[in-house]
Amino acid sequence: MADTRFGCAPFARITLIPRPLWRDTLNDGLAEALRPLCKKPVSETLILDASLEESSGALTKALRELFNLDWQLDDLGLHQVKTVRPRLRQLALYALPEQRSALDTLTHRQRATAHGMLAARRLADLPAEQCTPQYVVEEARRLCADIPTLRCEVLDEKAIVEQGLGLLHAVGKGAERPPRLLAIHYDGVSEGPVRCYVGKGVTFDTGGLWLKEGAGMYTMKYDMCGAANVLGLMLSIAELALPVRVMGVLALAENAIGPAAMQPAASPGPVMA
């Protein structure tokens, strides 16, 4: 267990984390020890002593846990009672001079990973009423706009049919919010094979005319997490400037109930081929 001590001037709180927790890769002990530092911070600055940890893997895990635990979605006005929640604003790492170069590389990688991860989590946590196929496209364009190595290509509902993408069309044709296919291209090198990652982006899945039961429908906004993860992956790859060529494809649709919804057990025809 971590040992927390208060009133240790000039520090507001000192938390001692045993080395076995740093090296535990199977359980959540490290996350549990770090959780109070993010959920109930006593200061806007957290100083993490990295000088004693020989393994970069442990520090990598700690940084990922901190980035993950610090995640908040406070800008939507979802809470009826507005509360001021303290949060960390700065993370400082203490290390020996000879560790500086390796530490700079490690923190850059984890920061890039966190940027992609948090972008994905934000999309996943947005209400389905807001996070529509077109919204995901606009958000992706916004996030990619300042990154020269990323470019976006979008197919609307007409182009989806023209390109023979019948399954995506069939899933989304019953909704008022039409489907979209978003391709994000990254060229870290001029030649070589293109790696392709495809993410399922059903922004809400009612089941269509084959309606899901209430308990099963509650979490169906998360049917777009595959697409959100692909977007986050592309952002992280670009920030890391990896020497690869990658295409991320987000298949975006809302599976809704309506006169045009796909019939249950419909036979695959030319439109769905």
What are the key terms here?
Aminopeptidase; alpha/beta; 273 residues; Cytosol aminopeptidase; 2 domains; Peptidase_M17_C; manganese; hydrolase; 8 strands
Rounded average pLDDT: 81
Report, as a whole number of angstroms, the end-to-end distance.
57 Å
**Text of the CATH class of the largest domain:** Alpha Beta
Going by CATH, the homologous superfamily of the largest domain would be Zn peptidases
**Residues in helices, as a percent range:** 25-40%
Work out the radius of gyration: 22 Å
Number of helices: 9
Largest sheet geometry: 4 strands, mixed
Approximate strand percentage? 15-25%
N-to-C SSE string, H for helix and E for strand: EEHHEHEHHEHHEEHHE
Query: Numbering strands along the chain, what is their spatial order in the largest sheet?
Result: 5-6-8-7
Total beta strand runs: 8
Shape: globular
Q: Which structural class should the secondary elements be placed in?
A: alpha/beta
Domain Cytosol aminopeptidase: 120-264
Protein name: Cytosol aminopeptidase
Pfam family, one: Peptidase_M17
Family: Belongs to the peptidase M17 family.
